Amino acid sequence: MTDSSAPGNPSSTAVIVLGAGIVGVSTALALQQRGHAVCLVDRQAPGRATSYGNCGILQREAVRPYAFPRDWQALLRVATGQGNDVHYHLRALPALVPALARYWHASAPARYAGTVAAYSALIRHCLDEHAPWIARAGAQDLVRHDGWLEAYRSEAEFDAAARDATAVAADHALDHALLDRAALHQAEPALRDVLAGAIHWRDPWTVSDPGELVARYAALFERQGGTFCHGDAATLRASGSGWQVSTADGTVEAAQAVIALGPWAADLTTRLGYRLPLFVKRGYHRHYAAEAMPSKPVLDAENGVLLVPMRQGLRVTTGAEFAHRDAPPTPVQSGRAEQIAAQMVRLGAPVEAQPWMGARPCIADMLPVVGRAPRHSGLWFHFGHGHQGLTLGPATARLLAELFDGDATYVDAAPYDPRRFGD
Ligand SMILES: Cc1cc2nc3c(=O)[nH]c(=O)nc-3n(C[C@H](O)[C@H](O)[C@H](O)COP(=O)(O)OP(=O)(O)OC[C@H]3O[C@@H](n4cnc5c(N)ncnc54)[C@H](O)[C@@H]3O)c2cc1C
């Protein structure tokens, strides 16, 4: 792809998209849809990294990104290792302090309210942006439309969460139902009687194999004439008036390049001189051959463990681990998650020898980075989707594609602008 135009479309621009997770594949599809010739580059097959191992929920209800806890009780709970939703590596903290300080700052109530306004404006489009691609990719068999369950063990916690959910649902026009203990066990007989009740978020869709969904989106992209190449994003270099990258199929050149490398984005942006507050929250999962699975994902909210019926078995997933991205896995949360899951269902043997580990790519202000690189012509940033990348990939890809073409954007792009960090 050394020419700068797609055949038959002289105004289109050839683009290299680096990273074939949900965000990169969605970028490739959105740009292709607008007539651009796209080469998608990854060192492995599409959808095999973070986008493989998540909980598979298209979180239409996630109008509020995860804030840094601001009350001392919650902080003390994390600091003293109580609960399973958060774990941290002490030795990783010094390097994390600058990003965590900004995360804390952004989580102050007044600032957070602005973030929720921006985030919810995007989240509300998430299903509409996925829907046509699910259909065209022939991925309907992977997707269910009956939501997920946010469950609580204690009556008091359930009551408080139910009040909050009812208020949020009213503010954001979300469909939800409150299931008490009896209703929950009638709806999900595979669950043991340890849960006091659940919020049934009814809008979200769930994906029984998120990695496969991304692979099918990538196959759609290739069927429609797009190119996928194996290559190392670290080989990206400015070349003439554009960019080039080395791939297994030779050097690819294009006028424009998009960095969509999720948790690895900073490897490249730091080399280019940007200091974006990107950090990771690692997470684990393991599949189990459960005798009977719940019909939809069930979160044990007080323990930060989510049980998800998947094609591979019952996926037991964990909350956030603050650690160096590449530090060896620590089995603390996944070990506890197995015990917690065994209290909730009749858990069978693990499918894999070891838990899977991935890293949520998080930005300190809780919003992804979508837009033109501040100081490099023809370079674009698209990463940092944190806890909701599977949900938001197509929605932010549309935003990026609109910016790319200089069109009016369907949501306000300013909150996602890479220049907001002053680089
Ligand atoms: C346990 C867990 C549960 C989650 N649950 C949900 C959920 O239910 N719903 C939801 O919406 N989100 C969820 N998420 C978050 C979601 O998975 C991520 O936000 C999303 O997958 C990020 O996608 P991405 O494309 O940015 O990154 P990735 O999927 O990691 O893609 C990045 C790509 O870049 C490639 N790459 C990296 N370096 C190089 C290089 N040097 N050269 C070439 N290629 C390279 C990688 O191979 C990879 O394919 C969860 C995450 C975790 C960890």
UniProtKB/TrEMBL annotation:
Give the matching SUPFAM superfamilies: FAD/NAD(P)-binding domain
What domain of life? Bacteria
Instruction: Identify the residues that the record assigns to the FAD dependent oxidoreductase domain, covering every copy.
Output: 15-403
| InterPro entries, sorted | FAD-dep_OxRdtase, FAD/NAD-bd_sf
Q: Which Gene3D superfamilies match?
A: D-Amino Acid Oxidase, subunit A, domain 2, FAD/NAD(P)-binding domain
Name the keywords, alphabetized: Oxidoreductase
Coiled-coil ranges (or none): none
The answer to whether UniProt assigns keyword Oxidoreductase to this entry is yes
Name of the featured protein: FAD-binding oxidoreductase
Species annotation:
Cupriavidus campinensis
One Pfam family here? DAO
Membrane-spanning regions, if any? none
